Amino acid sequence: MKKWFAVIGDPIAQSKSPNMHHIWYEEAGEDAAYIPIHVKAEELEQAVRSLKLLGASGWNVTIPHKQSIIPFLDELDELAQKMGAVNTVVRLEDGRLKGYNTDGPGFVQSLEETIGTGHRQDPLLLIGAGGAARGIAFALQQAGYTSITVANRTAAKAEAIVQEMGEGKALSLEEAESTLDLYKVFIQTTPAGMSTGNLELPFSMKKFPAGAIAADIVYNPLMTPFLLAAEEKGAAIVNGLGMFVHQGAIAYQYWLGEYPNTNGMIARLTEQLG
Ligand code: ATR
Questions:
Q1: Which DSSP string corresponds to the chain?
Q2: Which CATH number fits domain 104-239: 3.40.50.1970, 3.40.50.720, 3.20.20.70, 3.30.360.10?
Q3: Atom of ligand 1 nearest to the CA of 134
Q4: Per the CB 3.0–4.6 Å rule, which of 53, 92, 154, 183 could disulfide with 125?
Q5: Is 0.90 surpassed by the pTM of this model?
Q6: Ligand 1 centre and the CA of 152: distance in Å?
Q7: Class of domain 3-101+242-273
Q8: What's the ipTM?
Q9: Which ligand 1 atom is nearest residue 190's CA?
């Protein structure tokens, strides 16, 4: 039987995942399909049952279902368990459903594709403490990053992440702002700079050091206000597109066993978005 996959969310029409996965199927000669399905919050349980019944081999989960899908799964990967959020479901051979989270690992993969693995001991500042930041914090820790500081407008949320990690430091955004020069690697995870939202940076870059590394998880626009300001100070830049492509690539690998061509995909999407 032809393998098929899906992405479920609300809204879903804007998702770039179907196009990305179809290009990979074509490149690999995989006879598979990947379908966007609009699922509202109150329809989630029914949707999971239907996907199972209709034989989906796996699916991605996006906003607003990443947490609420967990009770409908049979098993969770360790990182997904720690994060309390799932973005990838795999139907195992015995039909049981296992949840993974590839967002954080996708970010780390993208970061290290640009900066290599030689910065794991460098002081790192993670800005923001929402769902995306939590995933990235745990994935960085799992990858061996040893000096993580989390800064957030609501400092208590940064504190909660640090508590769960069992190491690291938490700061308010103001505290971080006045000590930016202590860090080497910066990861911006707040929605500030998204093309649909606010184009203002939520903190001052005055103390941003020379020769740093600046990563953002937003990819539309490719150059966020944070990345533009960091570039002006000579930083190496990692935009959010790599995270999107690698989270999809890791899911693809869980489903089909191979790691697809991420460089070609990043180049193609950069051209579309640029
Ligand atoms: P996601 O799941 O994408 O990470 P989220 O859970 O809504 O989204 O988290 C958004 C993060 O961006 C939070 O850390 C939020 O700060 P608060 O915890 O104080 O709410 C941060 N954020 C959003 N808008 C911001 C702004 N204008 N200035 C500073 N931080 C902002």
A1: --EEEEEEESS-TT--HHHHHHHHHHHHT--EEEEEEE--GGGHHHHHHHHHHTT-SEEEE-TT-TTTTGGG-SEE-HHHHHHT--SEEEE-TTS-EEEE--HHHHHHHHHHHHHTTTTTTS-EEEE--SHHHHHHHHHHHHHT---EEEEESSHHHHHHHHHHHTSSEEEEHHHHHTTGGG-SEEEE-SSTT-TTS--S-SS--TTPPTT-EEEES--SSSS-HHHHHHHHTT-EEE-THHHHHHHHHHHHHHHHSS---HHHHHHHHHHHH-
A2: 3.40.50.720
A3: 4
A4: 183
A5: yes
A6: 8
A7: alpha beta
A8: 0.96
A9: 12
